[in-house]
Amino acid sequence: MKEAMPVLTAGAGLHETLALLTSQLRPDANHKEDMVFLKDVFSERSLGYLMKIHEKLRQYERQSPTPVLHSASSLAEDVAEELQSGPMSTEEKELLHLLTSPHLKAVLSVHDTVAQKNFDPVLPPLPDDLEDELEEESVKIVRLVKNKEPLGATIRRDEATGAVIVARIMRGGAADRSGLVHVGDELREVNGVSVIHKRPDEISQLLSQSQGSITLKIIPAIKEEDRLKESKVYMRALFDYIPLEDKATPCQEAGLPFKRGDILQVVTQDDPTWWQAKRVGDSNLRAGLVPSKQFQERRLAYRMKMGTLPNPKSPKKPASGLRRSFRLSRKDRQGSSGEGSDPGDPDFLTYEEVTRYQQRPNERPRLVVLIGSLGARINELKQRVIAENPHRYAVAVPHTTRPKKPHEKDGVEYHFVTKQQFDADALNNKFIEHGEYKENQYGTSIEAIRSVQAKNKMCIVDVQPEALKRLRTAEFKPYVIFVKPRWALPPEDPDSDEDLQEMRQSAIQIDQQYGHLVDRVLIKEDSASACAELRGILERLERESFWVPLCWVRT
């Protein structure tokens, strides 16, 4: 006989309803996992507590409580004064101690604020002589509440008239949120102090020292700028920036510091020299100043001309002791030219426009590229991860001109080809990298990578950093991992042996030349932990979104 469903009373609480619902969940063959999941969720003790709190709050709302009085603070002060007017018993002394304690006074103050429903900040009264000043229609009095945050505006002196002009409004700052101050407004007074004959640095100090509220006398610009919608332009920074070390910035305090690899949301490019931007992930609502791409490139070009910056187009010396694909000798190592979208192609590294990208079910998996400093042993790391899950991950089978050994199969360990065929493929730019070892040629081809991806497997390759240029395409959308052994990290011990110093120097040189192309740095403590970390990265690549160059996904 089917069990009857219990009936809820009209006064049953939400937590009682939840408990009853939980008791009625019965797993069946078709939805067993879903039922078990729901039962686990509904049985959580914390959820029951939340339901009880919700009921209590609803009861409190239905009672519509009203405060007995709106001035509990003054009443407490009156009682305390009355108690001190004569001799006190032990209980009266204890009551006086309670009424004068800072915590209780703060609670009573909050009570009064809520009871009076007075939640706006208290502003000082306007000056008595303000009516005369407002007779001229062009004058505007602006009062802002800024607390300890910067005002969020920069000023400049008009060379022709000598007037103090609002040069820019920082998006998200106090001035921007008010909607009352605009670019081009003329500033006359700050808190009643005339700024007409003051230097810009004196005015900035006056603005920064004002706490709580600040009153500005402004002559509005003839044409007020329309407030622009926040831009959705995102840039990956390819260099470090410290505003306090930048003498060119119009306001160092308004600058936004960032590190290479940070993602910046550029909220306005109105000024061709100084953009306003926020760091993605920052809780600060106010934008900061960063050098624009054009301005930063001009500065780097000037530094190169003056000899304080190496020419980015000059050939770079290979890092001594780099891990060599196919164990190539240094004198035999060759690069292969080809097409690619490398932010290192432009003259200078400044910014790269990016967007969020997540692999869709019908798309081929992203290419995973490992580069490593001397001692990283990334081939061993790659092979170990692939061996653990050969159905999901695979390596691009390389080509070679050496003879096939008896136990080897063509297309498994290597693609065995003639020297003539290898040379023809190299001439046609079919290899991402190739070289010679013991008079035999070795190389990894583009088609070998495509062959792995065509099987819906994630292809993992370990290459020389120089090969990144060929691989950074919309077709492969590579995720680049730089593997560093723990002992290759600074600080460098001057007494360490030559091999250890060479490892450190190798890591430093790769970071300097190719660090802007790296998506993740993996510090290799040992093979087991490095393998686990790499496996976690590969799993996230299949289900999470990542920042990639905009040109890779633009249709």
Automatic annotation (TrEMBL):
* Domain L27, chain residue ranges per copy: 10-64, 65-122
Q: Which domain of life is it from?
A: Eukaryota
The Guanylate kinase-like domain covers: 365-539
* PDZ domain span: 141-222
InterPro entries reported for this sequence: GK/Ca_channel_bsu, Guanylate_kin-like_dom, Guanylate_kinase_CS, L27_C, L27_dom, L27_dom_sf, MAGUK, P-loop_NTPase
Q: Which key words tag this protein in UniProt?
A: SH3 domain
Region of interest (Disordered), ranges:
304-349
Show where the SH3 domain sits: 230-300
CDD domains reported in the protein's UniProt record: GMPK, PDZ_MPP3-MPP4-MPP7-like
**Family indicated by similarity:** Belongs to the MAGUK family.
Q: What is this protein called?
A: Membrane protein, palmitoylated 3a (MAGUK p55 subfamily member 3)
